[in-house]
Amino acid sequence: MTMSPMRGFTLLEVLITMVVLAIGLLGLASLQSKVQLSQIESYQRAQAVLLLEDMLARINANRGQAAAYITTTPLGTNDGLSAVCGSTPGSAQDRCEWSNALKGAAESITEGGVTRATGAMANARGCIQQVQARNAAAGVCQPGIYQVTVVWQGMTRTVEPPVLCGTAAQYGGTGYRRAVTGQTIIGLNDCN
After folding, report:
1. What mean pLDDT value characterizes the chain?
2. pTM listed for this prediction
């Protein structure tokens, strides 16, 4: 009987192939989890943009009372506002409804007899600030500029946004707070 000098070589090839395949599958699993996190972040940003545009539209629809929309503390998560808004149209109702939307009131889920809001971003808050006051004095004609900001908690750490709505402590530390900001200009009809 003659012995083949290549005995066991096929077994070694199979083992090496299995190791390479396992490393590739682990890389693929890691990629899949990063894609999933990116999808969640993207969904939250889209929701934030919708809520931002909603408040900008509300301010524009009630231009004469734009200054009444200004917030001293963020609306939304833990703001203490009632979930039931008044029926009188105006800035107070708009702010209440926007607060409820930031809290996720548009969608809810009931588990074990407990209903909770799930329709917005995690820890969503919103701020409305006056960047420039309206001034209709003769020769000045300065329109009002209002800035609306929506902030929420992201899934991974990144660069902290420079806006002043919410604090890093409310979002699990520095780098988890996300923000989108928009401005509206309230012009002066009676200015020359």
Report:
1. 86
2. 0.79
